[in-house]
Amino acid sequence: MFIRLGRLAHARRRVILIAAALFMVLAGAWGGGVFGAMSTGGLEPPNAESSRASELLESHFGHQPGDRDTVALYTDPTGELTVDDPAFEQAVTAALDRLPESEVLSWTGYWSPGLTEEERAAYVSGDGSATIATLTLNGADTTERLESYGEIEQAVRADDGRLETYLAGGPTSLHHLQAEAQRSLAAAQLISLPILLVLLLITFRGLVAAALPVALGIMAILGSMALLRWLTHVTEISIFALEITMLLGLGLAIDYGLFIVTRFRGELDRHGGDVGAALAATVNTTGRTVAFSGLVVVIGLCGLLFFPQPISQSFAWAGITVVLFDIIAALVVLPAALAALGPRINALSPRWLRRRPGTVTREDRAWGALAASVTRRPVPWLAGGLLVLLAAAAPLFWLEPGLTNHRYLPADNEAQVVPRILDEQFAAGHAGEARLDIAISGPVEERALTDYLRSVDGIAGAHDPAVHRADTELTWVNVGYRGEVDDPRNLALVREIRALGAPAGAEAVLVGGDGSPAVSLDNNEATTGALPWALAFVGLSTLVLLFVCFRSVLVPLKAVAVAFLSLGASLGLIVWGFQEGGFQGPLDFYVVGTTDVWALAVIITIAFGLVTDYEMFLVGRVYEEYQATGDNRRAIRVGLSGTGSVITRAGLLMVVVLAAMGLSATSLFVMTIGVGLALSVVIDATLVRSVIVPAAMRLLGRANWWPGGPRSSSGRPELPEAASEPAGYV
1-36+205-346 with 435-515: one CATH topology? Predict the structure, then answer.
């Protein structure tokens, strides 16, 4: 199959390249519209109790004046002005009065008419230097209210230079998280692209060769965007998913391009410049490995489909589509380009980067020495490597699950500043206090409702439970709480309220509230509940695929086991670095004391494919050599020394893409994913692939390849298609 694919690419190169160019134009034109079709929501499991509570209250009562969406805080940091000063009042009321009715349904504040003195006190700080106003935004859902927030974000700020204005609430946090994610992505591209271009030139040793994987990445990204736009008509696709498209689209295109171009150059020399033969051999060996490797990455991404949050499934579809396009581009378009270029693949190569065919570099000799040492003394190498992985994974025992919220933004972000000022300067029960929503359906008896509210008030952490809105069919109760949404005490509060018996006459009681501890609890439980199923699917599917690829039982088992160990090490470092603050110094972020469990799920499912990706290129080369010689030890030594340099460079290029995302981010959520994925690649491309995998394969010996392929009449293993053209290249 793969030989025929290589020959087809050579014979139909012009048609393929013209079709690819036309596809990029059409995909770019259609896919560019995806930005306006994507969602900003999808962060919560749709069937969770908190989601059902919000949906019930929203559908029954609608979004009415008095429903708090945003809190605007006005303060004089010097303390010279107070709410009783006319200048303070004039500046704040002028800002609030100019808000358009098309975007804001209502606002309530210190100067609102009809408030009692006790009610007014809920809107002002103890010293009178700060006041808050609560805003009800116009919009039928989160997306529409977020759009309204964007329209009034600047207008609501006081013009008086002596006053500072800060905004908080669900739309504010989501607005800033989205803006920070987009800013981080743009910054990552600005940082990584110049570095990548230099590294690509050095790695590919020529401008023409270096440009090919970038073109493939662009093609894959455009194709993915086009498919994602179509998917927006079928399901909810989050705008955050584009980050996965960009990262994997470019990163894997570079990896696959490097492996195939390197192999093609070697085969071109080996076949005396015969482009057709070189291309057929390249696609039949490295191309085959790329195909299986890409499918492993797709399997990992499919694991995200097990998580109920729509944003998780958005990430899955974004990753799956772009990886599939990367595979197609690497197996069809790149070979066609190589067929058209032939020896000109080495064109525009600086003299200082040129290398004669067959040249053994110092780097190659170093990998050869390491390979010889690992195969000579596999036990200490394997034991040492495993101990390092286990030590790195140890912090997982300290894991405190959390959920992305305002605290994942920079410490000086206004969404962080407002809760801090409210806790420090405002009394309990203030108008901006965070609240849980309780939806009680059915004709509840008045006395039973009073008793129920008294029971809620008796739970530790609950403040001032009161009916917000009610009719004969549904009662909406607000319960105040203090502290963070992922504080264990607030999670316990939600559990205790849910454990209370329903009041007489009630048909059902649902506890929720946008951005509340109920959402955090439901998200944590949904994610941790789905994770074992996702891991089981990814692990078992990978076992089957690797068995088909290598015709072995132990190689797939070892690959999956080592992949999970490698992931455990990187996740342990994430917990130590972000939850415990180990990375705070160099990365400068606010330590929240929890780890976003959904970020961990994203890292696990994406990184599993990436770490298995590099092992497949190593094991694929070992497999070729073993089938050519039947000598397991020699196959490992040749495989490691022959692939060490190119896989390390591929890993370096991938780390640049991922680390740029993590290191340029100011949002802790984006930073965690970027750094976590980069750590996974670093650990795998160094310790795992260069030490643990070859040492384990050396100890397993010929059992690596049991039961093996069909036997020829001579009794020797019959070479499969992938190994029919043995070569000493990746």
Answer: no
Residue 139 has pLDDT above 70, yes or no: yes
The domain over range 365-412+527-709 is classified in CATH as 2.30.110.10: no
DSSP state of 437: E
Q: State the amino acid at position 355 in one-letter form.
A: R
345 φ, ψ to 5°? -60, -25
Tell me the angle at which helices 241-270 and 170-204 cross, rounded to the nearest 10 degrees.
10
* CA–CA separation, 716 and 584 (whole Å): 58
Top CATH class, 62-162: alpha beta
Query: What contacts 322, CB < 8 A, 6 or more positions away?
Result: 220, 221, 223, 224, 244, 245, 248, 249, 252
Q: Does the domain at residues 1-36+205-346 carry the CATH identifier 3.20.20.70? A: no
| pLDDT tens, position by position, 109-134 | 999 998 888 889 999 999 999 999 99
- Residue 41 Ramachandran class (φ > 0 left, ψ -120 to 50 alpha, else beta): beta
| Rg from Cα positions in the chain | 30
User: Are the C-beta atoms of residues 110 and 141 closer than 8 Å to each other?
Assistant: no
**Which residues, at least 6 apart from 362, have a Cβ–Cβ distance to it below 8 Å?**
none
Asked whether 45 and 523 are in contact (CB, 8 A), the reply is yes
pLDDT tens per residue across span 620-658: 888 888 888 888 889 999 888 888 888 888 888 888 888
CATH of domain 435-515: 3.30.70
What whole-number distance in Å separates Cα of residue 163 and Cα of residue 158? 7
Q: Give the pLDDT confidence score for residue 361 in this predicted structure.
A: 65
582 touches 389 (CB < 8 A): no
**Contact predicate 57/474, CB 8 Å:** yes
- Transcribe 648-690 into DSSP letters: HHHHHHHHHHHHHHHHH--SHHHHHHHHHHHHHHHHIIIIIII
